[in-house]
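Honest question from a wet-lab person: if I give you the sequences of every part of a complex, can you actually get the arrangement of the whole thing, not just the pieces? Trying it with mine:
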Amino acid sequence: MSGEHESGGTMFDDLRDLYQEVILDHGRRPRHMQRLARFDATAKGDNPMCGDRVQVWVAFAPDGTIEQAGFEARGCAISIASADLMAETVVGHNKQDARALFASFREMAKTGACPDCAPALEPALERLKPLSGVHEYPSRVKCATLPWHALAAALDDVKEATSE
Amino acid sequence: MNDVMAATGFDVARIREDFPILRQTVRGKKLVFLDSAASAQKPRPVIDAMVQAMETQYANVHRGLHWMSERTTEAYEAARDAVAGLLNARERAEIVFTGSVTGSLNLMAHSYGRGVLKPGQAVLISAMEHHSNIVPWQMLRDERGIELRVCPISDAGELDMAAFEALLADGKVGLVSITHMSNVLGTYTPAERIVALAHAHGAKVLFDGAQAVVHRKVDVQALGCDFYAFTGHKLYGPTGIGVLWGRRELLEAMPPFMGGGDMISSVTYERSTWAQVPHKFEAGTPPILEGIGLRAAVDYVQAIGYPAIAAHEAALTEHALARMSAIEGVHVIGRAQDRGGVVSFTLDRAHPHDVATLLDRQGIAVRAGHHCAEPLMHRLGLESTARASFGIYTTTEEIDVLADTLTRVREFFA
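Yes, you can. This is the full assembly:
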């Protein structure tokens, strides 16, 4: 290795599928990492194996769609970026769509794709696609899905979730 | 190579040849295995001993009146002798085989905790224990009203001995159950002082030696302790076998933990009587092949010799601390004076899991997380760390690869 003088940029080129720029960016500067002042539902998520923790807050619009989502988390770049992209993506969706989006996202995180996902959710799923690289890193899939488990728990009025 | 290694003929290249797995490549890179504190790799003699036993002389032990069983029993009991020799125990009867250190500590919490300690007494642990030396005592506390006390540590990761003595002062502590070497900070606890203070206040001492016994000679008679626990798989042996050494008279005073075959003297529906130690604590078919593998591991380590192992690992640790401390943004966690080959660290702007994933891409295996020591993480104000840990096969070059790669990881997350 010494003598090659690879920079951090080239040495880890094959990790760019996992750590895409959008993930590094949202991991570093999350836009929605905040406790909502007014919220209708909240739940915590916990991954006891690695110590990642997240709490998600959701506020609904009068028509039942998600008006705003926020979170507080401790965890790796993947889990922070996933929580942030989730908070961004679920806005405008009702509970049912948000659950369907979670199911599709989970499929994508585990397999890299979601061929059967509902066409209506495709724009939202496209936004989450930078996270699909985790499917090649089995030990990191839970990092990406933990915030969604917490969201699902909040929507179901359950207080806590774990990424099993 | 330093003087001790030169004098003892320690040759890491030669040792590496004994570990077939070290020839593997990972993701196209040479494997740099820096996770021995989680579980160590196995040398050829351990692999061969277990395979040979299965191929040539395997049967159940302590019960067969046939050649195979007699040979296997001899081999299994010889493992007890090897462990007794390793720890300088007085006799083989003081060596109890369990499934793991966790098994040994749970045996203690059940048999000593419920059978010898009395409600109102206390168990004293430290602020740098593995969960396996916390949770069994919590369960005992909640069930039996036996207090659980925790001795604080300094920011450097050393035991606060003034607090330790103060916690013993009221004479209620019946057992000190404490790590001999921290799996997170690398700290060696001052075993002789711990024993002297504990005994002066009427407490027995149990050491969790899961990490310590790998790196240094442990002589239980010289330490003066009462119980010592360690595990096979961190000492280059197989998984599935742990050890609890105890003074014979103390083991004899303890009731059995699990009931079943092999641990009885006689059984009727009215009552059963127990076998002698150590069999009283070994219900069921024991880890036979694992015992045979552990013996080979103990022989292997003894043949290299602890002076050489300790000198090699001290040199590695010194080199690692120097290299890693020189990297901007890297923080070594734990600065104890007396320490072994475990180095925990954090990197600014990067979560330990992300660090571990990037290192893995270069073939470097480290552990990241809370290391089964959440209360210690809280004490340190951390959620998790990355941890590089060293073994007899670790080289200075591997530590250089780690340090060079960490520099690149820092650039990646800059």
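Two things worth pointing out. Residues 95-111 of chain A form the longest helix (17 residues). The CA atoms of residues 106 and 145 of chain A lie 6 Å apart.
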